Amino acid sequence: MENILLVFFFFIIYSFIGYITEIIFCSINSKKIIYNRGFLIGPYLPIYGTGALIIIYTLQKYNTDLLALFVMSMVYCTVLEYLTSLILEKIFHLRWWDYSEKKFNINGRVCLKNGVLFGFGSLLIVKVIHPAIESFVHFIPHFLLLIISSILLFIFLTDIVISLRIMFGLKTNLKKITSKDATEQIKREVLYYLKNYNVLTTRLLKSFPDLDKINDHRLDKFLETFKKVKNELNKIKLKRRQK
Question: For the whole model, what pTM was predicted?
Fold first, then answer.
């Protein structure tokens, strides 16, 4: 159990590092600050934590062979990203990211550029970052490390439950819409979520601006209506301030 908590501690650290890294890259590409990434509430991206653990615990034998480490990391992380995209789309019927416009992509789920970045990132993790983190962890008293890891695990699991509830809530409500012109019904659903999950739902939709590329036309209408309602609310707030 103690070893599991230690591994989870590393998982959270690398998930947080991945979250910060993605914010930086997305902000640079978008030329504006992007501060919400991922569908979880907390500042972490599990795919990065998972990728880092895979690299650390399976590719250490290539520690002295940088070329092999680079290539294997590219392969492992690219496969992980592809499978994650495929699984999420199968579960939620949403395309969470799309690299179709990038060169050398596979079904828009992965691309060569990201693979190369994963390779360099893995070199950095194995040779620099993880040794430094391990040294830091050794200075933390054992009992304190277990307490911190246990608290983080509880927060993380709670986050997953809440975030999945929101996602399945959106999915279930949209499936109930059967009328040809369901604009008003969708609007009621939007207002319901704004009232009950305002902060969480807004963050989720901001995190994935490419959700309008999904196959389900009902969610397209949902997002369009969501934006209209949000603009109306902003206008009302502005008028109140002017008074």
Answer: 0.71
